[in-house]
Amino acid sequence: MPESEQPPVLHEARPARGADRRDFFKLAAAGAAVGFGAAGLAGRASAQTAPAAAPSDTDILNFALNLEYLEAQFYSFAAIGTGIPPALLPGTQTQGAAVGGRKANLQDPVVIQYAREIASDELAHVTTLRRVLGSAAVAQPALDISPQIFTAAAVAAGIDLSASGGVFDPYASDDNFLLAAYIFEDVGVTAYKGAAPLLSSPDNVDGAAGILAAEGFHAGIIRAALYRRGVEVPALWTATDQISALRNRLDGDVSSAGPPQRVANDDSGVSPVQTQFGLTANFVPTDSNGIVFSRNSEQVHNIAYLTQNAATSGGFFPNGTNNPNPALRRSGAN
Amino acid sequence: MSDKMEFLDLMERAETQRQARRSFIRLCGGAAAMTGGLSLLAACDDDDDPPFPPPPPPGPGPSPTPPGLTDADVLNFALQLEYLEGNYYSYAVSGQGIPAALQTGTGAQGNVVTGTGPGAARQVSFTDPVLQQYAREIAFDEIGHITFLRNALGSAAVAQPVINLSGSATITVGNTTPVGAFTAAARAAGVVGPNAIFDPFASDENFLIGSYLLTDVGVSAYRGAARLITNKTFLEASAGILATECYHDGVIRAELWRRGLTAPSIYSVIAQVSAARDALDGTPDLDQDIGNASVANLIPTDPGGLVLGRTAPQVLNIVYLNPASTQGGGFFPTGVNGTIRSSGGP
Fold it and tell me: ipTM of this model?
């Protein structure tokens, strides 16, 4: 957005660590201020400095489009065994192929429905973003959705793969498909949330909110399915906790008020927690106020590239994401 | 099935959902007026439009959200809806409403009217422990949202208004004896007969239907309000609350759909509730059911994959259970507090 439109920064930084649901009582007991409370509508400005070159709406929507290519290809392969239509792949910068995907061996009719509906939505998101970006849309970059990459993520997370020969194949079973989806879904939601305050056009804010909302439905459905299945297969709960811990590691320990807000360790798996109501599910990854947290574009890239370091490619994007703005192609140094 | 046939099947499925999403056809027909908060018309053409073209000017149909609203107005409106949701889930999991300290503020503070006997707001005796654990999480989050919004608004926060949280045949509000709001909604939808009650606290299934009634509306309200918020900090936070509501709603809709496989009447009941909301909120078709056993429709999106939104007046049509322009009724018998209080309509 133009420099003149930089919004004021109205609130203080959140607590640096662990303001998640698990710490709720600790914080409450200590009388700690959480969230924006201390500032209120007339809060004071902080010393936050504006980014050097604020990304344009086009840059941000292209950032989102890269994530949608990844999700759309994964779900399309998993649901029906083929990728998204070739007509949806060209654009600016280097076009690549999606490799390593195949139809998932889904057995549970409920999971099959989930996969198909989410695939349909992600396809629509790619189509919508490409349409609104028009000739500015970036091409699909090279995508690696092979079991090797998912295995690398699972190994990094510390998931026990001894029963499957050290391999995590996202297409092998209902459970594996859900866990693989778990790796992506929350990241998409937090990415859209982090991007929302950077968009300058109200129409783009509106459209992005609509996509964010759909991703939230997806993520809730995936997480709740893992929660329910984890009652019988506790290893699933453990695996989500491990994936969330990995994401927390990859995306760093820095907190800042934003916008966009950056948090350190708010990611959490689906394992149940204790609240004032008793044993409680954790199908929403939130802060202590029940609000889904944000990630900035660098943090999102840390997870997509599966690296804690500053990088321009890796993980699911072997040649990096496409974007005319280099700042929106790189991960952070964490 | 071959890959090609699978792909055609997926396309066919998308088409089926598109047909369920009737708004597309009506909107693209050009007759229907769109009001603020939606960019659905963007899906109707192939022009090289700028990103997410603006909605057309308001025409006949529900009133647009009035101009000149401040962020505080918008957040206070959201807070009213959170009072309703927070109390619903809190009663369902604990038999109590939200803490008294969270109810104060400007405007007339009201109580939660639970009703008595069958249909009264109370703790649900869940038979499915997983559903109970989901419900507790939702209750926790909703109380978090209330806390957050009140803190953000500070002294500008509006009080909890009177809330009709009952499925009872009649309740007492001041000198009036309205029908419990859940029963009124269910009767209007045809879910129960004109003299029967609907008790959302009676069973797992009823609780989910009551949740569907409220949470879908919350999602569409935050979705519709996003473009109205000017302060970027609040916009980001509001996006986070929207996201949370979507996680909740995804789980509620998915639970209903899953249960429909063995209790198919759920699909028709949800279709009735959805149709009733559509009848309340004016011309644009902004509501979707959960599909049927063959094709799930867990995410209420337009053909572009965007979740549907409502303007504040459209939201009030639903929670007031009234298609006309009015300032109270249904779940808020004396209206909501704040500057946004009128439902849409002629």
Answer: 0.85
